[in-house]
Fold:
Amino acid sequence: MRFLPHTDTDRSAMLESIGVSGIADLFSDIPDVFHLERGQLDIAEALSEAGIVRKFTKASEKNRNATNTRYFLGGGTYHHFVPAVVDYVISRGEFLTAYTPYQPEIAQGTLQALFEFQTMIARLTGMDVSNASMYEAATATAEAALMARRVSRKKRVVMAGSVNPRYRSVTANYLSRLDGEYEEVDMGCFGTDLDKVIAAIDAQTACVIVQYPDFYGSVYDLAPLREACDANQCLMVVAFSDVSAFALIESPGAMGADIAVGSGQSLGIPMAFGGPHLGLFTCKQKYLRQMPGRVCGLTKDADGKRGFVLTLSTREQHIRREKATSNICTNQGLMCTAAATYMTLMGDAGLSTVARHSAAALQLLVSQLPDHVTALEGAHYNETVLSFVDHQARQRFMAAAQADDIFAGIPLERFDVGQADLGEAGPSAENRHLLVATTEMIEEADIHDYLRVLEVSL
Structure:
């Protein structure tokens, strides 16, 4: 029997208080065409608890053992190693919550974990301050655009077309109901053309959003963009998909970013079918009070003892709605703890090793590609685009790779990136590209297997 807390008498009393005769009256404003009569939905009878366990246990037996699967997947979610200690720590009762604690007197452990998380993220990104996380990278990017509008008192947002399509889509959705202009700059190729981005900046621009490394893995110099932003008095927002990159390449802070946002999934958080993941949000000190989310700080109590508290929390639940920096009402506290545990375990040397291995694996792969497959030119971190002679050749390879337990990459059309082909135009050319990523989980033998399947299938 399912548990229903309200009796028939309770429901009748509530309906009487509301002033309606039945529950159906509560939905009277919905057109009749959308109403379903009882029995129209083909829903099976409810199972007992034991029956439910039996049903899903049987279904779970269909899962493949992924131990020997090689993942060359990226696009914002990456297959990094997660030490066993991470799962142990976040499974402890005192940490097992997604929320930032409101009572510092009983939640010092969680607050300290968030404080340390902020410190480590600020160091890794080279920025002054970090908040205690956002939901994920896409909403963090959108919130960065809103923050830049507040800081600059301008309303125009310029977005590079080489930013992750998911980040672009969410940001466009956020801004679609606000006054002001939102412009996406078409790169015309797989990479970032800074000249085109800079040409789109004008005196009304609040911020320019670029990704570094970009969606295609390209690494480039942001100095010209910093100069253009200074000349037009707008903010430079840098997004990223794999924050572990900054253990090897220049950080957004070192490149002059005003705001840096992105994903923390690579820091001890599994791919997990796309979530829950972790949104990172950092900025310069002078913009702290315009930053969304909340910040945990270190202080002293009346007896002079060290303590951790919520220092800054400008979300709409805590202050007047019109004064709020964001209406996001929670953070990914558990994922913050996972990331903090991971970074503590790895340390500077460990993070650097992961980044070097990830980058080296990609270099080894692209250096041995057969003649009929090409990779993008220029510097790349751990991600690039492989181009095949045609769609059929790519599909043959992907099918053969999957049969050999290799997830070979992501077809770019799945992202609907809207980019022109490298030197070619037209739909026939768009479906022959594969976004490929490597992490420290890809070993030399895995790359040899990838290349072997590539040769055999083509």
Remarks:
- The longest helix spans residues 333-366.
- Residues 285 and 396 are 52 Å apart (CA to CA).
